[in-house]
Please model this.
Amino acid sequence: QVQVVESGGGLVQAGGSLRLSCAASGSIFSINVMGWYRQVPGKQRELVATVTSGGLTNYATSVKGRFTISRDNAKNTVYLQMNSLKPEDTAVYYCNADIQKFVLGSTYTYWGQGTQVTVSS
Model:
């Protein structure tokens, strides 16, 4: 059994900051890419940022320079530091992780349940 659990969402004023955390637990041999996505009602889920186990990062253009993704491999945890937040950043933020459960097993993508981020103007 693998669980991916986000935390850290909430309500913040425009220009403020929030830090999201996401921890994977359970039967895990290795985790390749971990990432953050977001979704607003009526729209498709979109990429925010990803980070590989080696630390390579990728960001959506809309968040570059404002958000920072990082991870602690020992804790199977990924973070998203969000600064200079804008009302258009309001969304449900989802974490995902590409997890290999066994040494010769396949890799599957696991999603968290999401955490609401609301930025007021």
